[in-house]
Amino acid sequence: MRLTLIITTYNWPDSLVLVLKSIEGQTIIPDEVIIADDGSSAETKAVISKYQKDSDLNIIHSWQEDKGFRVAESRNKAIVKSRSDYIILVDGDMILHHKFIQDHIKNAQANYFVQGSRVLLTKVKSKKILDIRKIDFSFFSSGLKNRKNAIRSNLLSKIFSSKKNYLKGIKSCNIAFFKDDCIKVNGFNEDFIGWGREDSEFVVRLLNSGINRKTLRFNALQYHLWHPQNKQESLRINNLLLKLAIENNIKYCESGINRYIKRI
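Given the sequence above, the corresponding C-alpha cells read:
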C-alpha cells in the first residue's frame, strides 16, 4: 500500500520546518509528502525548495493563490496530486511522533477512515520549541496540556480505540482514509470558505456512504504547536452547510475534487 502524507500550511515556515523534521525521523517514511499550501508567500516556498533539494523525502508543493481561507480547495488539489492508495492529513503545526506513520499503517482498514488525537502544547512550550528546534517529547515533558494523549501504548490502543460512528472530535489535523473513498464522496466541499466544519461535513458524507469511523487512541501521536485562534466569521454559514448534509443524508458534494481529476 502506497501512502501519502498531506500537510496543510499557510505562512508559518518555522512551524513547517519542525513538521518536516519530524517526518524525516519516522520509522516508516511516507511514499509522498504533499504540502497543501493555501497561498503562502515566498518564505514558505524557499523552505520547501530547500527540503526538496536536501532531504530524502519525496516532497511535492501544491500551491494556490491566496484568496482567503480555502483549505477545502487546497486539500482537494493535494489529494488529486497523490499517487497513493492511502492518505493521511495533518496540519502544518503538528509535530509527529516518530511512529506516527507506522501506527496509521497498522490501523488502516477497508471501509473505515481513522480519526486520531493530538497533544496540545502550551504557548510557552511552543515558543521554546520553535526557538531551539528540539522536537523530542514524552509523557513526562513539560508544557503538555492534555498529557494522557502523549501516552503511546499498543495495549492501551487496542483496548480504548473504538469503531463507533459519530461526529464529535472530528479533526482533519490527524485523519486518514483511502483515496478511493474520498473520491467516492467528491472530496472536501469547496462551498466551505473560511475556518470551520469542512472536515466534519466531509466525514458526514463518508459515513452516509458506508465508510465507518475508527477512533484511534494511544497511537499515531502528534503535538500541536500553540497559535492564536483562527477567525470564525464564516462559522455560522459553515454550520448551516454541515446541518444540511446531516439532515439530507448527503453522500456527494457538487463543489468538490472532481473538477481537478479531469486535469490530471
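The longest strand covers residues 3-9. Try to locate this feature in the C-alpha cell string yourself.
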